[in-house]
Design a protein that fits this description.
Methylamine Dehydrogenase, Chain H, 561 residues, 48% strand, globular, Immunoglobulin-like, mainly beta, 5-stranded antiparallel β-sheet
Length: 561
């Protein structure tokens, strides 16, 4: 099988220094053979026109998207999509752009932006939740002001700070309260994340406390070892207990103990408030050592409820064992084999579906997949079927990219659901999220960007909702394709006049909404071109929506300078 490291090259190019001369104007994704019900593009309008002050970056933010980075834990709840997108300004990572989007219409309800140019501290969002009529953000705030901080792009790897909690109105996004200890408070809890990679952190929040688990290693006298430790912090950021060792690593006495550490999620809190934990020992290929992986379920006091050696279920040589998804009846364990390069994680993927008593239902080797399956693109159905997405968009010289959605059936066989082609010259990217909604529709997040001189430049996170019946129908018409492709707005960003190019002679009502969802302008589209005067519009993000005569809603985002 040919391996594609495109996604990983994207990762490294994004966090590296970007030449300010590599300009990448946003261009909307168009799909050759399926039409999304709606699309939502994340734009931070507060940063438009800003120029970096650091000598290492010197980038001009012309459209409010260049600084956006990885997904920070977007989720779906109560008919809404809550998006969290990390941002990086002046070569420094902090906080996230948070949005509430209506799942039915794609309409942006509100947006929360923490402007790190004016905030004295850097913050990392660890978790968000909806509680009654409140939207709550939990995280860690750096323990010293940014003026004296040495943390820059490596903020995650070096992070040490204090707990914070921010409370927002669920309906308006207005901040209601904020809780964090002061710098001079001697009782504040210092939370250290430096010993653990971001993707596998274990942090569980409630209204009363934060329980934080950390994989700690190399604490034995001979430099080898592994612990799982627990810290408990109250809702105001004061330490209650910890760090307490709750699990001593089973493989701490092994050679090459660094192979114990996993880059993926290994600790999971169930609905029953028990903990699922995976420990593994999988040295790099070439080392003559045993490969082992133990899945354990613990109670709240970390007494063993049940455990299983995954080797006894048929695993041989493997790496990166993690918990991908869980339901009341099933557990999806994900890993890879045929490891070729531990730094780039180039290997073949597999799923193991277990029942909640740790009995193996099936093991599925993903022969149809080329690359490393992101946990965010794995969905578990109640009947044991698994949907997953090929998150690579395979850039080719002809400007075509594609992504694939696959299904693992009840018998463990994987089959292609749909291959979707894009047609954007010199653009490519990858899938960060795949959600299967309650009605079966698919919600997919892409990050896509152009290539200039062979390098990926900028970052454009965009969400799409696809009707599942059309997605499964491989005979989508060219008319639907044109409907999505040929409604073009320009310029974007706009100053005085916004032009609509209606090459397909679409008919319908065009409406423009501001970021708060208020209707600003509307007009009938019944001609090849339409122009809106936007000179009186306030600067910011706007949504243009067309509902055509066939009932198809088309949404475009634009920025008013």
């Amino acid at each position: 099988m040919t391996r594609n490291i495109f996604t990983l090259l994207v990762f490294f190019s994004i966090v590296s220094t970007i030449d300010a001369q590599l300009k990448c104007d946003y261009e909307a994704i168009t799909f050759q053979n399926v039409t999304p019900l709606w699309r939502h593009l994340t734009i931070d309008s507060s940063i438009i026109g800003y120029t970096d002050t650091t000598a290492t970056n010197q980038q001009f933010y012309q459209d409010g998207m260049e600084h956006l980075s990885f997904d920070a834990g977007s989720f779906v709840e109560g008919g809404y999509l809550y998006t969290l997108t990390e941002n990086m300004i002046d070569h420094d990572i902090s906080s996230a752009v948070i949005e509430k989007v209506d799942l039915e219409t794609g309409k942006l309800e509100w947006q929360i932006i923490e402007d790190i140019r004016t905030e004295p501290y850097r913050e990392v969002v660890l978790q968000t939740s909806v509680v009654d009529d409140q939207f709550i953000v939990y995280g860690v705030r750096e323990d010293q002001p940014d003026s004296s901080s040495t943390h820059t792009v490596n903020f995650y790897g070096q992070l040490e700070g204090v707990y914070y909690r921010k409370v927002y109105d669920l309906h308006t996004g207005e901040r209601l309260a904020s809780f964090t200890p002061s710098d001079t408070d001697s009782l504040k809890a210092i939370i250290n994340f430096s010993a653990l990679s971001p993707s596998s952190r274990g942090h569980f929040f409630s209204e009363d406390s934060l329980i934080h688990f950390t994989d700690r290693r190399n604490f034995f006298p001979d430099g080898r070892g592994f612990y799982l430790t627990k810290n408990v912090v109250d809702s105001n950021g004061y330490a209650i207990s910890g760090p307490d060792t709750v699990v001593v690593g089973r493989f701490s006495d092994r050679p090459h103990v660094e192979a114990v550490i996993n880059r993926r999620k290994t600790l999971y809190l169930t609905e029953e408030e028990t903990f699922l934990h995976i420990e593994q020992y999988s040295p790099e290929v070439g080392f003559d050592h045993t490969f082992e992986a133990i899945l354990t379920e613990y109670d709240q006091d970390f007494n063993v409820i049940r455990e299983v050696d995954l080797k006894e279920l048929g695993l041989d040589v493997f790496s990166q064992i993690s918990i991908a998804e869980i339901s009341k009846e099933y557990i999806v364990v994900k890993g890879c084999y045929n490891l070729q390069n531990s730094s780039f994680i180039i290997c073949d993927d597999f799923f193991m579906l277990l029942d909640r008593d740790f009995n193996l239902i099936y093991e599925a080797h993903l022969d149809g997949y080329d690359g490393f399956v992101n946990n965010g693109t794995v969905n578990l159905f109640p009947d044991g079927r698994i949907y997953y997405a090929n998150r690579n968009l395979n850039f080719t010289e002809g400007g075509f990219s594609d992504f694939e959605v696959w299904e693992v059936t009840e018998d463990g066989e994987d089959q292609l659901v749909r291959r979707v082609q894009l047609s954007i010259p010199d653009w490519g990217g990858f899938i960060q999220h795949l959600f299967v909604l309650e009605d079966g529709d698919l919600l997919i997040q892409f990050t896509h960007s152009c290539f200039v001189d062979g390098r990926k430049n900028s970052w454009h996170p965009e969400w799409f909702r696809f009707d599942i019946e059309e997605f499964l129908d491989r005979t989508s018409t060219e008319d639907q394709l044109l409907t999505d492709r040929d409604l073009i707005i320009s310029p974007n960003p706009v100053d005085i006049l916004l032009h609509i190019d209606n090459k397909s002679d679409l008919q319908g009502l065009v409406e423009i909404y501001d970021i708060d969802g208020r209707l600003i302008e509307s007009n009938e589209l019944n001609q090849p071109e339409l122009t809106f005067e936007t000179g009186a519009f306030s600067p910011g993000l706007y949504t243009l929506r067309l509902l055509n005569e066939n009932g198809i809603s088309i949404v475009r985002k634009f920025v008013k300078l």
